[in-house]
Amino acid sequence: RGSGGEPFSIAERARLELVIPHVRQAVEIYQRLETSRSEEAVIAGAVERFAVGTVILDHSHKVLKMNRFAASILSEQDGVSLSGGRVVFADAKTDADYRALLKAVVKGEPEDLELRVARPSGRPDISVVARPVSIPDFMHTGSAPAIALLLSDPGSRTLVTPQSLRNVLDLTPAEAAIAASLANGMSVSDTAAHLGVALNTV
After folding, report:
1. How far apart are CA 168 and CA 183, in angstroms?
2. Cα dihedral sign, 175-201-94-58
3. Which has the closest alpha carbon to 79: 91, 68, 97?
4. How far apart are CA 130 and CA 154, in angstroms?
5. Long-range CB contact pairs, 136-141, < 8 A, 24+
6. CA–CA–CA angle 55, 61, 66 (5° rounding)
7. Residue 165 and residue 163: Cα distance in Å, rounded?
8. Are 162 and 146 in contact, with CB atoms under 8 Å apart?
9. pLDDT per residue as tens digits for the range 26-65
């Protein structure tokens, strides 16, 4: 009501008191969503800054979303491309290995799984790392996010340093060293050997 309106009656106040908790809850949910969006924007910007392609797949393995770097890699059609809304590979064996990798992710393999993609052009292999997307149980169907693919192209980016990752993503020294190694095109096994850590740690 406007400032010159009649005061609220006791009954009206009682009804408002019933509504207020729901309004407060709605505001809290909105704040959480906005916080998540802000965090997502920061992380997405950092990932693109370090030239890592990200592709989000649904439960039928169709592409839901990708960043600009992933779109650039796929548009080159150099060993890997996008067809019918799906990531596909020029080599039949690599394509079969990719499908097996996705099945392993769905089964809940305890570590990130990697696929090396040879390119017909002779340029350095593309690294494709697959990992599950954590979502609530009720969303584990249909077009909800299911798998994240991380695409690394060693020939098209500047070197990522652990310190730069720590500054942007607030990682520990060990986490930053692992992330930088993977971002620079090293495989999971090579990263573990190079840093002297267990494969499961990577």
Report:
1. 14
2. negative
3. 91
4. 17
5. 140/59, 141/59
6. 15
7. 5
8. no
9. 888 887 777 666 556 545 554 555 567 889 898 899 998 8
Exposed e or buried b per residue across 72-87, where buried means at least 16 C-beta atoms within 10 angstroms of its C-beta: ebbeeebbbebeeeeb
Q: Which two tokens stand for residue 22?
A: 């729901």
Question: How do residues 62-86 score in pLDDT, each as one tens digit?
Answer: 998 888 888 989 999 999 999 999 9
In what helix (H) or strand (E) does residue 32 lie, and over which residues does it extend? helix 10-49
Higher-confidence position of 99 and 1? 99
Cα–Cα distance for residue pair 9/170, rounded to 1 Å = 53
How many residues would you count in the chain? 202
Answer yes or no: pTM beyond 0.90: no
